[in-house]
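Write out the 3D structure for:
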Amino acid sequence: MLSQEDNDLLTQTGPGTPAGNLLRRYWQPVALSEELTEDGTPLALRVMGEDLTLFRDEFERLGLLGLRCPHRGTDLSYGRIEDGGLRCVYHGWLFDVHGNCLDQPGEPEWSKFAGKVRQRSYPCTERGGLIFAYMGPGEPPELPDYECLGLPEENVLVTKFYHECNYLHGHEGNIDPQHLATLHYVLPGEVADAGVRWDAKGIDVAPRIEVEETDYGIRIYSGRDLDDEHDYVRITNYVYPAAVAFPALRPPDITGAPIGTAVGAGFYGVNWQVPIDDTHHWKYMLLVSPDAPLAKERIGPVILADMGPGYAHVRDRSNRYLQDRAEMRRTTFLGMGASFALQDKFAVEAQGDIQDRTVEHLGYADKPVALSRRLLLRAIREVAEGGEAPHVLRDPAQNRMEHLRIYEAVVPKTEEWSSIWQKDAAPG
């Protein structure tokens, strides 16, 4: 469990808060590229408690400005894209992507007032179907050279999901290996109302877990007994400040992969949690197939099942996620359909807006959660004392991520887990 002070440190991300100051040291995804449509409509956003508007000018330059015009407070997302910037439709003030005021039609020709006005602005860049912003002080660092951001468009499915809870809920759910065998379980036929016998399911629900601190975060090993001679092993990676790269295939007892074959190398997912405010966040998701085009027509409908307008699931708190008790007896353990994204959303939203971690009881399987909290708290305090945030890259020559590896395979029980990631795993 955490003290109330530490829980507040981790979950409060608005301007000037310690965690907010840490998160602002990194490039954060703030929108999907597809959200800026060809008609030029600016996009109103809220990121870490700040109201902003995102746009492309006529020269395809990205701008992220404060939402309210500094003149009289009108919403700039209704503005016009023209004359090298975003023009407020109330009095015509014009701002470029850097927040400079270029024009004030109501001022006299001799006025120098425009040069004294500046709108809050943040630098942006675009890679891999995502638009990133740097909202911290000083010069932006390098955007880490993650493999998933440099692949052809046909090799990656990119989307996002709206969550009604604090970002830390989603982050900690991402690095929880044990729930794969419960929350996401698909029942093997009709199951009696009396309940599910885990030992009858053919899957080890109590994985052995090891954690290893790295320069980018944590390498997480989870292993399950498959038979007397083999383990099913996954390597997931927590990446500062709130991202995870994970094997995207199901365990071999579900996929039917033959013993001795790597069933996950080369196909993986990335989840990136970004606060909207302290009680809402976005999960940006990338499904990645490095070596071949992704079968989006087959995978897309599964990943995006139950999606409504605004990247929000139709199933939500208001309708109790349309949980189906008959489905719980016949098909899925949870009774909320087959979408892992929806199942995860339910689990973290059901913890409340901001989980009270002062009354929780962490167990053996929560090793990654416990370590990630310690690392985040350490980073928050180091930044507060004037230090550099971890995994902030300043030297382009050091911007290499070959050691961030994702793996899923059936291996002999004699295999040393700590060396597995150096074999044929997929780079993140």
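The first strand starts at residue 27 and ends at 32.
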